[in-house]
Design brief:
single chain, six-stranded mixed beta sheet, 10 helices, 6 strands, globular
């Protein structure tokens, strides 16, 4: 596993190779950014959107969190990091696409499904339980479909989480308005770590199909 010294070594390779190769691109980005796509992804170290989509610098605006969840629209006081990222991407950068990308073997979705942190104290899983609590209704549905929490149940939970996030995105008025006007498209996807394959959600039929 890389330690800080290995990360610094990686930076030096980036500086010598990638940055040098993309100098014109970085010069453009120094003047500002204009990505057309926002990706909402999990913080899991195995699912880096830039690597999965082989994206160049500046092509994607990415927000990552536990289980790639979009919260519902709320105006209460507090620290709404994901909502702030969405607001910036949609109203300031004016992206035309938002992709919610869940993934296989997701620890956040597993925590939601099993309830392993439901009674945890702060520092022992309490924040995790609170965050994935937005999946409680979906969790109940998944549990009803799967008597045993087998691998299919966990996959079902991961894909249901993507649908929950899409539904929550549409509670933001400035997202819903732009989608209705055809200025913004919302998409769902699931990346299978074991297969290295991306599955896109067909919302009309509710299933995920390989790309």
């Amino acid at each position: 596993m890389p330690h800080l010294s290995q990360l610094i070594d990686g930076y030096r390779r980036f500086r010598q190779k990638n940055w040098a190769r993309e100098r014109e691109r970085w010069a453009e980005l120094a003047e500002g950014q204009s990505p057309q796509v926002m990706v909402l992804s999990c913080a899991d170290s195995r699912v880096d959107p830039a690597q999965i989509f082989d994206a160049r610098p500046g092509e994607m605006f990415v927000a990552r969190n536990i289980a790639a969840l979009a919260p519902p629209y709320e105006t209460s006081s507090g620290y709404h990091g994901v909502s702030a990222a969405l607001e910036f991407a949609v109203t300031q950068l004016k992206v035309g696409e938002i992709l919610v990308m869940g993934h296989g073997l997701c620890g956040g979705c597993a925590a939601a499904l099993t309830g392993q942190f439901d009674d945890a104290e702060h520092g022992e899983g309490h924040f995790i339980a609170d965050w994935v609590g937005m999946l409680n209704r979906a969790r109940d549905d998944v549990r009803a479909r799967h008597r045993d929490l087998d691998p299919d149940a966990f996959l079902d939970m991961e894909r249901e989480a993507v649908k929950v996030s899409l539904a929550n995105l549409r509670t933001f008025p400035w997202i819903a308005e732009r989608e209705l006007a055809g200025e913004l498209n919302l998409h769902g996807a699931h990346f299978s770590i074991s297969e290295g394959r991306l599955y896109m959600l067909n919302e009309a039929e509710g299933d995920f199909r390989p790309v």
